[in-house]
Design brief:
The chain is built from four helices and four strands; from the N terminus they run H-H-H-E-E-E-E-H. It is an alpha+beta fold and 112 residues long. The chain folds into two domains: 8-67, no CATH class; 71-112, no CATH class. Strand 2 (82-84) and strand 3 form a beta hairpin. The termini are far apart.
């Protein structure tokens, strides 16, 4: 198995969605470009060191992951008998959730 490309598809999907969303919002797009120019000036080789200073970039990526999760239906298997929202869940039961729906719940987010 070749693990040399692990994660590239999901990374590419997040970047594609972020750029797609920014294309419709010129002010945040300009802010992202301005931050990039300050944190890594033209002509200076990019390194990992300035990443913590890319605060707006981090928020853009976080919001993109919230709105357009690359994991469209993650699942988990119950390790023990338990309960979820008042419903019994037996050990070995597979539960599936939808980040798309969860992240758009007005009861959970002030501006879903």
């Amino acid at each position: 198995m070749d693990l040399g490309h692990a994660g590239t598809e999901t990374t590419a999907a997040v970047l594609a969605w972020a750029l797609h969303r920014l294309a419709g919002h010129p002010d945040p797009e300009a802010r992202l470009h301005a931050e990039a120019d300050v944190v890594v000036p033209h002509g200076v080789p990019a390194t990992f060191d300035p990443l913590p200073r890319r605060e707006f970039t981090s928020r853009v990526i976080t919001e993109t992951l919230r709105l357009d999760s690359t994991a469209w239906a993650p699942s988990r298997v119950a390790a023990t008998d338990t309960e979820f929202a008042g419903h019994p869940v037996k050990k070995g039961t597979t539960a599936v959730c939808s980040p798309y729906l969860i992240h758009r719940q007005a009861t959970l987010h002030s501006r879903p």
